[in-house]
Amino acid sequence: QVQLVESGGGLVQAGGSLRLSCAASGLTFASYAMGWFRQAPGKEREFVSAITRSGGTAYYADSVKGRFTISTDNAKNTVYLRMNSLKPEDTAVYYCAAERGLISYYSAEYDYWGQGTQVTVSS
User: Fold this and answer.
1) Sign (positive or negative) of CA dihedral 29, 75, 72, 43
2) 3-state class of 14 per DSSP?
């Protein structure tokens, strides 16, 4: 049974930082590209960042480029999202996802999802 469990969300002031973690189990972690998506109230789920199976190449949405960093620890089967210079518009539920195929910006192409963690950025 595959499980993705996110943690690290919370309430932070604008300009602050958070690090999200997503621990994966029940899958061969190194065989999956990993992604982060977010969904704000009343909006569709959107791509935030993703990293290739090898962990060698990362991709970011333009809205977070230069502020967020994705990384993996294959020994811990964990993917991280370091978020700096947070803005109120970053407020959303953040989800991690695993994709067995090639890396993708599209949520429909991901095979497994976590339950999400809330990030709230106050102004």
Assistant:
1) positive
2) coil
pLDDT tens for 60-102 read 999 999 999 999 999 999 999 999 999 999 999 999 999 997 8
Q: Are 121 and 12 in contact (CB under 8 A)?
A: yes
Cα 122 from Cα 12, distance rounded (Å): 6
Q: Give the pLDDT of residue 63.
A: 97
Phi then psi for 108, rounded to 5 degrees? -65, -20
pLDDT of 74-83, one tens digit each? Answer: 999 999 999 9
Greatest distance between any 2 Cα atoms in the chain: 40
Output the DSSP codes for 43-66: S--EEEEEE-TTS--EEE-TTTTT
Q: How far apart are CA 53 and CA 85, in angstroms?
A: 27
Q: Tell me the two tokens of residue 119.
A: 């990030």
